[in-house]
Amino acid sequence: MNNDKNYIDSLLRDIQSETRDIALMEVCGTHTMAIAKSGVRNLMPDNLKLLSGPGCPVCVTAQGDIDAVIDLAERPGIILVTFGDMMRVPGNNSSLQEARSRGADVRVAYSPLDALATARQNPQREVVFLGIGFETTAPAVAITTEQARKEGLENFSVFSLHKVVPPALEVIFSDPDIRVDGLICPGHVSIVIGLEPYLGLAEKYYQPCVITGFETRDILEGIVMLLQQIRKGEARAQIQYKRVVRPEGNLAARETLKRVFTTAGARWRGLGFIEDSGLEFNHDYEKWDARRKFSIPEYEDIPIKGCACGQVLTGRITPHDCPLFGKACTPINPVGPCMVSHEGACAAYYRYRIA
Ligand code: SF4
To answer: Is 6 exposed, middle or buried (0-12, 13-18, 19+ CB in 10 A)?
Structure first.
């Protein structure tokens, strides 16, 4: 990667010379935070907007699914194991943190393997791991479930709310109310899925797509690559993050996903139900599927009053346009998931005081 200051300055000059109205969207929570932290947004000309899309897995989890998780945690005998980000996400009546204060056994883990260890240590209890994330995190959950099957560990299961990114991008590109001129594609997800899904999207929707890394230089270079395409009237899928992402993706991770999961329809906050956008266990792993095991019903999506996360997640508005931003909704008292998650757009705008 070229770290030379002159090179960075030349990228900035190129971007700042742009005079057309252009909106670029990132669909990765890590990009949301990196762009906010680096101050890149402030270096853009007024006519070039950087929008945040549905790239934060916690934020895109449907409200009904959050309510289902909290209710499951409160069932007798359950140990619910989750990543820390989920603890404070508000359900309609409560959160996992509040459920824990009422006596539910909710434990924070750093890896799904921690949940497997908890299941081994508590053979008389049912241990449920909350699987949230995109193609990046799902392979580790798949491997953990394979291990549970190998050990015959039947008091372990996974509540899979995993999602895959490309179908959500189709919804974004198809919506005439969402203006996007190019996509800053997610670096981490693309390590697994590679370039191929974007080739079809770029062609079908005539959208330039560039898989971009997370350093400030990467982001600036990705933006310049998108602008170059837009100026030439092209719509191609390219990789800026070549030092990490291979065109074919990670074949081993994709094979692992295929062995354990199958795609199924899933609900997304802000985007609604999307066919083939979720990952549910295939026939061989049904025993470890918490939805089946505990007959978890489909909970209605009841929006949180006043929260505009659905609009923020689809780039229709920025966090500042939500009337609750920084007033009734802050990281200390979050109203919606986009203010809770460390990858949420509202949290990023608040933390880095983006004007
Ligand atoms: Fe939701 Fe709070 Fe963001 Fe408003 S500021 S959209 S209430 S998370």
So the answer is: exposed
pLDDT digits (tens, 9 = 90+) for 293-316: 999 999 999 999 999 999 999 999
Residue nearest to atom 7 of ligand 1 (CA): 307
Is residue 1 pLDDT above 80, yes or no? Answer: no
CA of 223 to the centre of ligand 1 (A): 27
The atom number, within ligand 1, closest to the CA of 306 reads: 7
Locate the ligand 1 atom nearest the alpha carbon of residue 323 and give its number.
Answer: 4
Domain 18-32+39-57+167-239 has CATH 3.40.630.10: no
Topology of the domain covering 60-164+249-293: Rossmann fold (3.40.50)
How close is the Cα of 60 to the center of ligand 1, in Å?
Answer: 13
Domains 18-32+39-57+167-239 and 60-164+249-293 share a fold: yes
Q: How many CB atoms lie within 10 A of CB 287?
A: 16
For the chain, the structural domain boundaries read 18-32+39-57+167-239, 60-164+249-293, 311-351
Q: What is the DSSP string of 280-337?
A: EE-GGGGGGBHHHHTTPPPPP--PPTT--HHHHTTTSS-GGGSTTBTTTB-SSS-SSH
Instruction: Supply the pTM of this predicted model.
Output: 0.95
227, two tokens: 């602008």
Biggest distance spanned by C-alpha atoms of the chain: 65
pLDDT, tens only, 89-120 = 999 999 999 999 999 999 999 999 999 999 99
Q: Which atom belonging to ligand 1 lies closest to the Cα atom of 345?
A: 3
